[in-house]
Known about the structure:
By secondary structure, the protein is α/β, with parallel strands linked by helices. Helix content is 35%, strand content 19%. The protein has eleven helices and 13 strands. The strands form two sheets. Strands 3-2-1-4-5-6-7 form a seven-stranded parallel β-sheet, sandwiched between helices. The two termini are 15 Å apart.
Amino acid sequence: MKKILFLTETFPPDLCGVADYVLMLASNLVEEYEVHIVTRKSNSNSLLLDKRINLYEILSGKAYIFQAIRTINTIRPDIVDVQLAYSGSGYLHKKNLLTLMNALAISSLKQSTQCCLTIHELSSFLDDVPSLLRVFYRVIRDYCQTRFYDYYLCMSRKYLTYLKKAENKSALLGFSNVPTIRNHNRIENRNLIFFGTIGHNKKIDSLIQIFRDLNRDDPCFHLTFVGGIVEGFESTFFCLLKSLPRKSWSYEGRLSGNELATILDCSSYAIFPFSVTDKNASVLAMLVNRLVVIALCESLPTYAQNGNSFYGLSQLSASVIRGIVSDSLGKTVSYPDSNQLLSAHLMQRKEIYERLLTSST
């Protein structure tokens, strides 16, 4: 059985999409591969991991880089898949792991080992304008993180353009980690949901203003916020909520997949007051759970081309939302089943892995 090793900065119980993704991937590959995961200390003892998943929580302490290299070389994997994410609200891009670890670990491996880089998030990196003092650091960081791989896997087609010189690269098919418990396709109520990180850049103030107008004309509208609040935005967020009638909204915080699925089962519309792209997995999660999605977007995301429940807008207003609700209430929506999307995603990965393994023999 061939060995696959995932090198990741984050792993459950971290509340992070990359963490959930790595666990999902490992759990679905153990039947065909010997799976190893090298990550930092994450207190994952509470998780009911498949016993076939080999977990090494060693990315901490002053000498973790050398300990990780020693561990990886001891395992002697056939494929190493590094998970990379830059996040404006996270900490992944600030860690030494993504500056030095990749280059040292990958360059120390045997030539027969095939190395992949999975790029989850690059938006904040691509949009960042570094100061003169940071330019040299960024050049080194960029080189170390992206120049030692046999294949590049991107969660968004947009990131393929960043890897201009790479020949072996693919955009992965989208899927949702959020489970579905909804057993019908009918839009039955005026319950709206905002799902995602709550911060200054998500236009929460505009959303609350729009919802205030909606609820004033029709008290049947209800808005639920689900997601963590960016540090420093808490007081602003709850101050904004005070302008709404108390029973018209709720805040659920960060939820597990099953808890979120329960909330979605009682909702009909998902609102995204900021511009969404292919990388917004939260939008796909809403579509898979058969909600009508109302979102700002500059161009139609790939996942929106399936089904009949995505409304991409250039401007968001109470009157526009009211019209969409009036048009869709009582109707049925369609979207591919989450299991179908996941199966297609895993099949694409397996085909790439097998291609790499064949080329190394």
